[in-house]
Amino acid sequence: MNNYQLYEEIGHGKFSKVYKGRKKFTIQFVAVKSIEKCRRDRVMTEVGILSNLQHENVLEFVHWYETRNHLWVIFEYCAGGDLLRLLKQDGRLPEERVRVFGQQICAGLLHVHSRGVIFADLKPANILFTEEEVLKLSDFGCSVRLEEAKEARPARRGAPQYMAPELFSEGGTVSFASDLWSLGCLLQELFSGSPPFSSPNSQQLQILILTEAAPSLPTASTEFQDLVGQLLRKRLPRLTWPVLRCHRWWRQVVGADADVQVLQREPPLKSFRTA
């Protein structure tokens, strides 16, 4: 850690703190996360996953260090903050802005899935953005490799408001499909200002997710309503990547005869499972 100068705290969690930092003898600013050693296994999982991801819309991993009392993980610095803070300030976003943001979120998530990784914690607080409006998926502490998903502990399923219905059943496991459910929750929250299912009571929240339809979006375009509705389908199979990439809601931007260009940078999805 002698290579970095630490500045103010820019975030914190139950077991961690995040500082703005700078690599010494340069003007390269970074985010420095200090984590208690009791979280070592989770940190090493995140480091292992992030070191194999490289995409404009995924937070860049720089390095990690271990000292006597803490683990330190160095990431690229995103001066804009996260989408949760943006929503708290602005309330909700216009549909066109949701589409722009959604393209970048989908591009990052598609890259993650194409590398055989389930994100498992997609929510506004885990999407950072730069001053140039580039969105970055961050916090892969709940993520799991596809081949290890069945052994993942229940605690590694993400925030309850964004959990797919199948994760509430005994033996339910995270999957690409559960990530896409979370994507539907996220897109609806960006548009409406709140997640589709919310309750301070965990049991009531579970009932809502399992039995109730998501609130309607009467002011949204029919294309957006259709996309979110397919992502929030309670029973599997849910909307898959090949269908998502070609959905007509994106085509309102890129043209009637084109897929979403930003989603075409990854290899064909037939090379791995989608559920």
3D architecture notes:
The structure is a single chain. The protein is of the alpha+beta class and 275 residues long. The protein has two domains: 73 residues, Phosphorylase Kinase, domain 1, CATH 3.30.200.20; 191 residues, Orthogonal Bundle (Transferase(Phosphotransferase), domain 1), CATH 1.10.510. The strands form three sheets. Strands 1-2-3-5-4 form a five-stranded antiparallel beta sheet, covered by helices on one side. The protein has a three-stranded antiparallel beta sheet with strand order 6-8-9. A hairpin with a 5-residue loop joins strand 8 and strand 9. The protein is globular, with a radius of gyration of 19 Å. The C terminus is likely disordered. GO terms for molecular function: ATP binding; microtubule binding; protein kinase activity. Keywords: ATP-binding, Nucleotide-binding. InterPro entries: Kinase-like_dom_sf, Prot_kinase_dom, Protein_kinase_ATP_BS, RUK. Monomer. This is Protein kinase domain-containing protein.
**Care to count the β-strands?**
10
What's the architecture of the largest domain, going by CATH? Orthogonal Bundle
The proportion of strand residues reads 15-25%
Rounded mean pLDDT score:
89
Secondary structural class: alpha+beta
Which topology of the largest domain does CATH recognise?
Answer: Transferase(Phosphotransferase), domain 1
Strand order of the largest sheet: 1-2-3-5-4
Instruction: Outline the low-pLDDT stretches.
Output: 254-262, 267-275
Q: What kind of sheet is the major sheet? A: 5 strands, antiparallel
The CATH class of the largest domain is identified as Mainly Alpha
Number of domains: 2
Q: Using only CA atoms, what is the Rg?
A: 19 Å
Oligomer description = single chain
Helix-strand pattern? EEEHEEEHHEEEEHHHHH
Q: Report the span from N to C terminus.
A: 40 Å
Shape: globular
CATH superfamily of the largest domain: Transferase(Phosphotransferase) domain 1
Task: Output the number of helix runs.
Answer: 8
